[in-house]
Amino acid sequence: MYDLHSSPLPPRLKSPSSSLVNAPDAEVTFQSADNVLFRIHRMNLTACSEGFSPPENSTFDEIVPLIETSSTLELLFQFIYPRPPPDLGKVGFEVLAALAEAAEKYRVFAAMNLKCLQDHAEEILLHGLKHGIRKLVDRIGPLFLDIPLEDFLPKLPNQFWIP
Known about the structure:
alpha/beta
């Protein structure tokens, strides 16, 4: 479980609020790395995630700072509420990767199995190779066994080329 700590919200701080995730009667307020506020119902956090540990007596004059950007949290928190999930079909890989990371980190169940990532298998493999994420490479690598080597070799990071 990810431990969250709240901090008082300075009265002069006027952070923008999310337009999609901003329940006026919510008990918990999160703040993104770029200072956007998200007001979430505690009941939804408890029911739909395992990783959020909201302070027991949270109020609107307290915030829980998170390190993710507002674009990531805007998507993630939409999976907390009982509504259709956001359309991720036109979302870029970097945003999807950040969403997948946040979903795993905070254990937001509905967002943890993002089927749209399958459309980015090549980017995911190259990301894993570039950053030495062996577990990721091992899991996605078998999808590329049918691709001719000459089609894929030019895309590999330089450290995988043998002179």
